[in-house]
Amino acid sequence: MGVMAYIAAAIAVGLGALGAGIGNGLIVSKTVEGIARQPEARATLQTTMYIGVALVEALPIIGVVLAFIFYAGAGS
Amino acid sequence: MTDPSKMNKLMLFSIAGIVIACLVIAEIMPHRRTVFHGVVLGASVSCFNIFYMARKIMNIAKSASGERKGRATLGFGFRIATSILAIVLAIEYPHYFNEIAVCASLVTGYFILPIIGFIMVLNEDKHHAK
């Protein structure tokens, strides 16, 4: 149980962080590109980025919290 | 399009409603009190995370349009750290907070925010159609 819990924690954190990194990178890069091209569209793009980042970030937070629970469970 | 501060205000009201409902239900059902206290803790941390994220996103947009100098980041590490702090509290004090409830409610704000965004955009579209 101990070793498997550590592996589960590592997979949950690693894959969650990978997905969030790619997703956030794409969202922020496209938004910054759009704002640099059209500064007057900042409000619209900012709100779209806000919703997009919120959608992307939910999963890695669940992953990290689950990993921490696995880690705490493996130690006890 | 809607302003992030308007969305934040609506989200704050929604989470405040959830927190008040959980506190009332916790008093009605004392044998399930730890679950509702866990939901209160998780929803509060989630609300704080969303406000912090909104501030960071506004800073990034200001940097991109040249209104602000210096480096702008998303602050993801800080949000992860606050989430871990909440779950550590639940692990350390299991008599007060249910661990699973805290874990599940840490993403309350992240689910409420897109729903509020979609509803506001739909309302604006209806307003423009008239």
TrEMBL record, chain A:
Primary localization class, coarse: membrane
Gene3D superfamilies tied to this protein: F1F0 ATP synthase subunit C
Keyword Signal attributed: no
Record carries keyword Transcription: no
Cell compartment(s), UniProt: Cell membrane; Membrane
Record field: transmembrane: 6-28, 49-74
Keywords assigned: ATP synthesis, Cell membrane, CF(0), Hydrogen ion transport, Ion transport, Lipid-binding, Membrane, Transmembrane, Transmembrane helix, Transport
SUPFAM superfamilies: F1F0 ATP synthase subunit C
Site (Reversibly protonated during proton transport): E57
One Pfam family hit: ATP-synt_C
Membrane topology: Multi-pass membrane protein
Every V-ATPase proteolipid subunit C-like domain range: 7-70
CDD domains per the UniProt record, alphabetical: ATP-synt_Fo_c_ATPE
Functional note: F(1)F(0) ATP synthase produces ATP from ADP in the presence of a proton or sodium gradient. F-type ATPases consist of two structural domains, F(1) containing the extramembraneous catalytic core and F(0) containing the membrane proton channel, linked together by a central stalk and a peripheral stalk. During catalysis, ATP synthesis in the catalytic domain of F(1) is coupled via a rotary mechanism of the central stalk subunits to proton translocation. Key component of the F(0) channel; it plays a direct role in translocation across the membrane. A homomeric c-ring of between 10-14 subunits forms the central stalk rotor element with the F(1) delta and epsilon subunits.
Name of this chain's protein: ATP synthase subunit c
Lineage: Bacteria, Bacillati, Bacillota, Bacilli, Bacillales
TrEMBL record, chain B:
Pfam families (UniProt xref): ATP-synt_I (PF03899)
Membrane topology classification: Multi-pass membrane protein
Subcellular location: Cell membrane
Source species, domain of life: Bacteria
Major localisation: membrane
Protein keywords: Cell membrane, Membrane, Transmembrane, Transmembrane helix
Database matches in InterPro entries: ATP_synth_I (IPR005598), ATP_synth_I_Bacilli (IPR039072)
Bilayer-spanning residue ranges: 12-29, 35-54, 74-93, 99-122
PANTHER family noted in UniProt: ATP SYNTHASE PROTEIN I
Protein name: ATP synthase subunit I
Provenance organism: Paenibacillus helianthi
